[in-house]
C-alpha cells in the first residue's frame, strides 16, 4: 500500500505516518527530510523532484509519505493508493504546533539528520519564517486545496480519507493493522 499523509503544519502528519508505516510494515518517507538541507536551505525543485521519485521507486512494495509540498502532487499521487488528510480544527492544530515548537526549542533536537536544523525561540516567535506563522497563514488555504482535490477528476483513482478527529485517526490505524494481519 502507498499512502500520502497530508494536512496543515502541526496536524500530526509525521506521527500518523510513522504509525501507519509500522502498522503496514512499509517504509516511512518524510518529504521535509528530502527537501531541507543545512542552514534551513531548501533543495531546488530540479534536485528535489528526482530525490522524491527515487525515494518512492526504491520502496515500490509500499510506503507512507509524510508531507504536503503541493508542487510535488503529480509525482506523489501518481503512485499513491490512498491520501490521508488530517483535517483537524484550527485550535487543535494551533495548540499542537505551539506544543511541538516549544518542545523542539527546549530539546534542541535536530529535525532532519545531517542538516543541523533546529528550532529556536527567535525563529519560532520572532521571525516571518516561523512555523507557527506558516500554520496560521496556510491553514485555511490548505483546507480549500484538499477539498478541491477530493472533487478533482484527476484524483478519482485515489482513496481520499478525511480525518477530522483523533478518534477517526485511531480507527484508521486500527483498521489498517487488521487489514495487514489478514
UniProtKB/TrEMBL annotation:
GO terms for molecular function: kinase activity. It comes from the Bacteria. The lineage of its organism: Bacteria, Pseudomonadati, Pseudomonadota, Gammaproteobacteria, Oceanospirillales. Signal peptide: none annotated. Keywords: Kinase, Transferase. The keyword Transcription regulation does not apply. This is Adenylate kinase. The keyword Lyase does not apply.
